[in-house]
Amino acid sequence: MGKPIIYGSDGSPAVRAVLLTAHAIGLDYEFHEINTQKNEHKTEEFLKKNPQHTIPTLEDDGKCIWDSHAISTYLVSKYAKDDSLYPKDLYKRAVVDQRLHFESSVLSPRMFAFGASRRSTDPQAMENAKTSILEAYDFLEKFIGSNQYFTGNSLSVADFSILATLSTMVNFAPAEQEKFPKISDWLSRMTKLPYYQKANGDGLQKIIEHIRKMSSQ
Ligand SMILES: N[C@@H](CCC(=O)N[C@@H](CS)C(=O)NCC(=O)O)C(=O)O
User: Fold this and answer.
1) CB count, 10 Å around CB of 27?
2) GST N-terminal domain location, by residue (predicted)?
């Protein structure tokens, strides 16, 4: 059996979420670069793996899975030495799942809506998008509560999913320390993970530079 293959580009927050999981569990994987700017996700070969043409896509033992949340939970269930990142306990697992769905259905769409609002002709669009982002930050602040991480006092795949997106968003819609002390503190602790730079920091830097370049054109 060959190594699992992660298809993607590390500028993508969803790809970085999976890379964080892969590094956290010490997965021996291959990374195949898919450049969406060059439409490499729309080739016949890639569409056979993932007809939805999204990155990340995982190929493991000849089978493909996509969506970062599904990939991360699969990788932990199959390859991690224990279940701490995605607990088998049903209640704990449901909490992790809720945070993953929050990232997928609230946080990430609001980030993309903010990006779209920058190109809108409606003068209110950006303000509205910012307000909905601040509401999402407020939810996150409450999710952490008195814990260290988003699902309790140990890391889970939900932290990785939220980290990849939030570390991108705060560059354009800051989560000020005074208003959001818990997520600010969490973010700064997450950047100290030994695999942070390789799994999230490098790709994040690339995408920030790319977005800044595009918006100055
Ligand atoms: N919810 C999906 C989002 C994946 C996604 O939309 N990825 C973007 C890059 S950030 C993509 O593949 N865009 C190209 C396309 O949809 O054709 C996940 O978590 O994997």
Assistant:
1) 18
2) 2-83
Q: Where are the domains of the chain?
A: 5-79, 90-215
Q: Which atom of ligand 1 is nearest to the CA of 54?
A: 12
Q: Does domain 90-215 match CATH 1.20.1050.10?
A: yes
Right CATH for 5-79 from 3.40.30.10, 3.40.640.10, 3.40.50.150, 3.40.50.1260 = 3.40.30.10
Question: For residue 125, which amino acid is it?
Answer: A
Give the count of beta carbons closer than 10 Å to the beta carbon of residue 37: 9
Find the helix or strand (DSSP H, E) in which 33 lies: strand 30-33
Q: Is 100 in the pocket of ligand 1 (CB under 6 A)?
A: no
Encode the chain (217 residues) as per-residue pLDDT tens digits. Answer: 799 999 999 999 999 999 999 999 999 999 999 999 999 999 999 999 999 999 999 999 999 999 999 999 999 999 999 999 999 999 999 999 999 999 999 999 999 999 999 889 998 999 999 999 999 999 999 999 999 999 999 999 999 999 999 999 999 999 999 999 999 999 999 999 999 999 999 999 999 999 888 877 6
**DSSP summary character for residue 36:** G
Probe target for ligand 1 pocket from 55, 71, 111, 112, with the most ligand atoms within 8 Å of CB: 55
